[in-house]
Design a protein that fits this description.
heterodimer, A: ten-stranded mixed sheet, nine-stranded mixed sheet, 12% helix, 56% strand, globular, B: alpha/beta
Chain lengths: 318, 243
């Protein structure tokens, strides 16, 4: 039940969640595990069988825990909603995730700051995915248009043997503000890690992305895929690192940054290293303006130039 | 419908299109046949206005209006479109959304029909992206399907047969015929004289110049006999220039 004191706050956040593409019915469904947090207050929490979802209020945020029990295959995604509605605030989320052996779960998270003028949102996550377990995490941010926000997500992820980890981070609505993204994955044998990150930088946004995968087990595989579009005076630096440390480890780093503005600036630093002769890691990085051929292909269908650019940008960030 | 008059294009001091004149009539398939490097794609680009190509001299009149100063999208809005020889790949743009860009407000059934006309099973392609995961042949067939969805007054098809397997080729050609049957004029560009069987007239291009125009069978034979083994690509023989 929602405490009457925070009901208004809850409604405001859920309305914003809805506008940001969230499924508000999931937050009131007792068959769906969910957690709604405004600033440092837990507004609602629903657990289901096999899924333990805990939260403890701290001075500037919460400590949250997600545990999926051994062998539990969660049929409906767990929904998380974090946000701050006022213009100013600090939210620090500590998150500990334990996906036990053979368990499977998908998590859909929304981070909502529609009125941000001076807000800091930090997430510090420790994620442990045990042998044969699967964890898919999709995080979508919605920021306002002022750019007065600093987002600092940090995660350390450990994969057991044959574990699967999929992480999709999307920040394409509103202004980014400042983003300092720092994820590192350590992979055991035959595990798979796939990290997809999509960011649309505008105005004076500053984007720093560091993603690192250590392929430590035999046959471990990974993909780091980053798509960044920059316009106005936005700047981005993307560092994608993969280390092939075990036989038959395979990794790929794929970064595309589209620059659509004279003052925007992008930088990509792929780092690939192999310390085992049977491992293989590859990379590709492309930074540049929007491809003229793509634009003219769409213009030849009757779109004007701006419409064509819009279709291309939406495509790459989809 | 389209009259190209005395068109010239000089690039880096080289005459790529040389006093080229051709006419595409309403509801006609005009074939342009030429070996590699004779300027076929350049003609397509000049008419569509892409690749920053602007004629050094000459005019392009479409439905009575000189289109030389119009942008690509303005030409498209007047009813001209181009199916590229090597169509661009666009990450994240789904086949169904690409076909819907045509501006004809096609519903899903009509979109599916366009794919079927080029031999593609809609359920396998509608939700795929037009990106690098498609083979060259698949991407080209989708390009033709998008032209079918657009139903332009004039469709410029740049080598729609290249990179297409022999099973799919008849489907592609049927698609072109169907496009024409539905009212589009077609400028069909290729180096394959067999493809010209579906054209009403055929012009042979040599060194940026039309050197012969006639009925498909006869012109195709002439092309095969004279151009296949010809060593003067980009330097047409004097007797050809007179034709």
């Amino acid at each position: 039940m929602i405490d009457s004191v925070v009901e208004k706050e809850y409604q405001g956040l859920v309305d914003a969640y809805d506008k940001a593409g969230g499924d508000r019915t999931a937050l009131v469904n007792n068959d769906v595990a969910s957690l709604v947090v405004h600033e440092n207050r837990i507004l609602s929490a629903t657990e289901i069988e096999g899924v333990k979802l805990t939260g403890e209020s701290q001075e500037h945020g919460i400590m949250a825990g997600l545990v999926v029990e051994e062998g539990c295959k969660v049929s409906r995604p767990v929904h998380l909603c974090f946000g701050i509605l006022p213009q100013e605030g600090l939210q620090e989320i500590g998150l500990r995730v334990d996906i036990k052996r053979g368990a499977e779960v998908k998590v859909i998270a929304h981070c909502i700051f529609p009125n941000a003028v001076h807000i800091t949102h930090k997430m510090d996550a420790v994620i442990n995915i045990e042998d044969n377990a699967s964890f898919s995490y999709k995080e979508t941010h919605y920021h306002g248009e002022s750019g007065g926000i600093e987002v600092i997500p940090k995660a350390r992820v450990t994969l057991g043997e044959k574990a699967l980890y999929e992480n999709t981070f999307s920040l394409v609505e509103g202004c980014v503000g400042k983003l300092d993204f720092d994820f590192e994955v350590s992979s055991a044998a035959r595990s798979v890690a796939e990290m997809i990150l999509k960011v649309y930088g505008k105005k004076d946004d500053i984007i720093k992305i560091a993603e690192k995968v250590n392929l430590n087990g035999d046959g471990a595989r990974s993909l780091i895929k980053t798509r960044v579009v920059l316009r106005d005076r936005a700047r981005a630096e993307v560092i994608g690192e993969t280390y092939g440390n075990a036989p038959y480890a395979r990794g790929h780093v794929d970064c595309v940054e589209l620059i659509n503005g004279e003052e925007a600036m992008g930088k990509a630093i792929p780092i690939v290293m192999v310390s085992n002769e049977k491992a293989k890691v590859t990379h590709e990085a492309a930074i540049g303006s929007i491809d003229r051929r793509q634009v003219e292909t769409l213009m030849a269908r009757g779109l004007d130039e701006n419409e064509a650019v819009d279709v291309i940008v939406k495509g790459i960030l989809r | 419908m389209l009259a190209v008059e005395n068109l010239r294009l000089q690039l880096n001091g080289k005459l790529v299109i040389d006093d080229l004149t051709l006419q595409v009539n309403e509801r006609e398939i005009l074939g342009v046949l030429g070996e590699n490097g004779t300027g076929k794609t350049t003609i397509a680009y000049l008419i569509m206005g892409v690749n920053n190509y602007k004629p050094t001299a000459g005019r392009m009149i479409f439905e009575g209006e000189d289109i030389g100063a119009l942008s690509v999208s303005q030409r498209a809005k007047k009813g001209i479109s181009l199916a590229w020889q090597e169509p661009a790949r666009i990450e994240g743009l789904r086949v169904k959304d690409y076909l819907k860009l045509s501006g004809n407000n096609f519903g899903m059934e009509q979109i599916k029909q366009c794919l079927l006309m080029v031999g593609m099973e809609p359920s396998q392609y509608l939700d795929r992206d037009i990106d690098n995961t498609l083979s060259g042949g698949e991407r080209k067939r989708i390009e033709l399907a998008s032209i079918l969805a657009m139903k332009p007054k004039l469709a410029i098809l740049d080598e729609p047969d290249s990179g297409i397997d022999i099973v799919s080729l008849p489907l592609i050609l049927n698609g072109v015929v169907e496009l024409n049957r539905q009212g589009s004029s077609v400028l069909l560009i290729t180096h394959n004289e067999k493809v010209m069987e579906i054209a009403h007239r055929v012009s042979v291009l040599c060194a940026g110049k039309i050197v012969r125009t006639g009925a498909p069978a006869e012109t195709g034979r002439w092309f095969k006999d004279n151009c296949r083994a010809c060593l003067h690509i980009n330097v047409p023989a004097d007797e050809d220039k007179k034709v």
